[in-house]
Amino acid sequence: MIVIVGFMGAGKTTVGRLLAARLGLPFVDTDLVIEAREGRSIPAIFAGDGEAVFRDVEEAVVADVLGGPDAVVSLGGGACGRAGTRDLLRTRTVVHLDVSLAEARARTAGDASRPMLQRADLEELHAGRRTVFEDLADVSVTTDGRSAEAIALDVLDHLLGSTGIVVPAPGGTCRVVVRAGALSAVGEHLPPTGSVLVVARAGEPVLPTVLAGLAGSVRVAEVPVEDAEGSRAAGGDAIAVPGPHDLVLAVGDHAVADVARSLVQTHGPGVRWAAVPRSLQALLDPPLSGSEVLQPSPDAPGPVRPPLVVVCDPDGVTPATDPRFRTALAEAVQTALTTAPEDLGTILASAAGLLAGDPGSVSALVRRAVTARARTATVGGDGADPVHLAYGRTFSRGFEPLVGDEADALSLGLVAAAHLARRAGLLDDAGVSSHRRVLRALGLPTSHRFPPSDLPPSWSRDGGDGGDDVRFVLLRGPGRPEAGLAVDHDALTGALQDLAEDR
User: Fold this and answer.
1) What is the pLDDT of residue 240?
2) Residue 193 sits in a domain of what CATH number?
3) d(CA 138, CA 371)
4) Using CA atoms, how far apart are residues 332 and 343, in angstroms rounded to an integer?
5) Is 204 in the same domain as 233?
6) Are 476 and 425 within 8 A, CB to CB?
7) Which residues does the record give as ATP binding sites (predicted)?
8) CATH number for the domain including 440?
9) What's residue 223's pLDDT?
10) 141, 299, 307, 365 - which has most CB atoms within 10 Å?
11) What are the backbone dihedrals phi and psi of residue 304, each rounded to the nearest 5 degrees, phi first?
């Protein structure tokens, strides 16, 4: 039960709805409950019966709501004036949205639905209520000059601390823990459960560490190494049957997570699952989405919910242990270029540590990636914008058969897309240079000669309409990808020439 308090205009309702969505909880505005019960607006209650009667009604409503199911609850600005309400709040998690009087006045100017604004002692009222709010608050966050989304994320950071980042996912939300050394205490991050069914590839090197960190009944279901790429087909009864209250724990990459999802989908709805990613790609893009799961059979209970928690520990995930480590680094640059250009400097500064697999450097990169996903995703969606994911890919699909390496092809594809955007007048020289600097720092190529005649005939047809123009995802500036941009073949040939001459 999270209760939001604050003065008029603090943003309690807006921030409360955002928090509820992020946490997968219902949202209750006690002012709306009062109006529904009374069949009148709050100004009408004030005008007809006076403030004392309104406060009696409000106190009763607040007591009912706080005694009900868990929710994010927004209280009216004066609700904390009653001693009974304050006593109830001392056993709840209270968040104070701290707003200055000047900001509150600016936000509520002309709002006839707020009778308290007409009081002559508004300054004293604000100061007195602020003292009460601060006394009750477990978390206090300033709101002046800040967006509701930024305030909500700040509140989440305070509430969760080091226990994780809440990320919206299909069917709910997921808590992602990012911390080096978390593997040895993975059980501390999992909910209470009857038993744990661990799904991992045969020979998974961190499996003994994970098992040592689990308590209670634990079973292990190993996915054969040779089945790794097609592991979804190996899921279900062929591996193990989880009990109705088991927790399925996937330890490995996305393919292993697919097995866990298939098990949960087949044997749910009481079965829950969690994940411990063990590749850099899975760390940067935690297995939250159920979109890769095979369609359920007619007798399956339905879509699988996201994992309850994903524990991201980068210890042991290095270029030496992860064959797709370089590809994941190129994808991290792709994400930064399209969604968070401010992260490019951080990646550049930590390049040496990333290439060495330093847990601190990898943890920082993973935390930024997960936080960016939390900020841009919506509940019920998987946070994967195809426009962002497609940037540079049209080029890289044509390049990969020629260079023979996915990471190199994506790096070259990103630089080629930057040159093309510059030729189209969308990106300046500094934008191209930002691509080049960070990719080179990660040991990825930024120059290669690709004669158009050597490229596969179909490489540049994505999104095409059959005409002479080819359509690409290009940047209109840092962090501003746009799909379906038509580019003539002269510009395309010129971009390939720029890529060949890039220094």
Assistant:
1) 64
2) 3.40.50.1970
3) 23
4) 10
5) yes
6) no
7) 9-14, 114, 146
8) 1.20.1090.10
9) 81
10) 307
11) -90, 145
The alpha carbons of the chain give a radius of gyration, in whole angstroms, of: 27
Q: Do 297 and 371 reside in the same domain of the chain?
A: no
Annotated binding site: 9-14, 31, 55, 77, 114, 129, 146
Q: 228 and 144, same structural domain?
A: no
Task: Give residue for tokens 């158009």.
Answer: 452
109-151 pLDDT, tens digit per residue, is 766 666 566 677 888 888 888 889 988 888 888 888 888 877 8
The answer to whether 273 and 307 have CB atoms below 8 angstroms apart is yes
CB neighbours of 42 closer than 8 A, spacing ≥ 6?
Answer: 31, 34, 35, 54, 76, 113, 115
Could you list the residues known to form a binding site for substrate, using ranges. 31, 55, 77, 129
Query: What average pLDDT does range 421-450 have in this prediction?
Result: 94
Report the alpha-carbon distance of residue 284 to residue 372 in Å, rounded: 10
Residues 36, 174, single domain; the answer is no
Q: What percent of the chain has pLDDT over 70?
A: 83
Q: What is the mean pLDDT of residues 355-382?
A: 76
Q: For residue range 158-195, list pLDDT tens digits in order.
A: 776 656 777 777 766 788 888 888 898 888 888 767 78
- Sign (positive or negative) of CA dihedral 278, 280, 286, 287: negative
Instruction: Say yes or no: 271 and 394 in one domain.
Output: no
Q: What range does the domain containing 111 cover?
A: 2-160
The DSSP letter of residue 248 is E
Torsion angle defined by CA atoms of residues 385, 387, 388 and 394, in that order, rounded to the nearest 10 degrees: 140
> pLDDT tens for residues 398-414?
999 999 999 999 999 99
Dihedral pair phi/psi, residue 200, rounded to 5°: -155, 160
60: left (phi over 0), alpha (psi -120 to 50) or beta: alpha
Residue showing tokens 């946490």: 23
14 plus 153 within the same structural domain: yes
Q: Which of 280, 302, 317 is the last residue of a domain?
A: 317
User: Looking at residue 109, which CATH number applies to its domain?
Assistant: 3.40.50.300
- pLDDT confidence of residue 466: 43
Report strand pairing: 272-277 vs 247-252.
parallel
What local confidence, expressed as pLDDT, does residue 430 receive? 93
Binding region for Mg(2+): 13
DSSP state of 145: T
State the pLDDT at residue 491: 87
Q: What is the bridge-based pairing of β-strands 172-178 and 309-312?
A: parallel
Residues 47 and 77 in one domain: yes
Last residue of a domain, one of 160, 191, 219: 160
Known binding residues for ATP are 9-14, 114, 146
User: In the chain, how many domains are there?
Assistant: 3
Q: Which residue has the higher pLDDT, 382 or 497?
A: 497
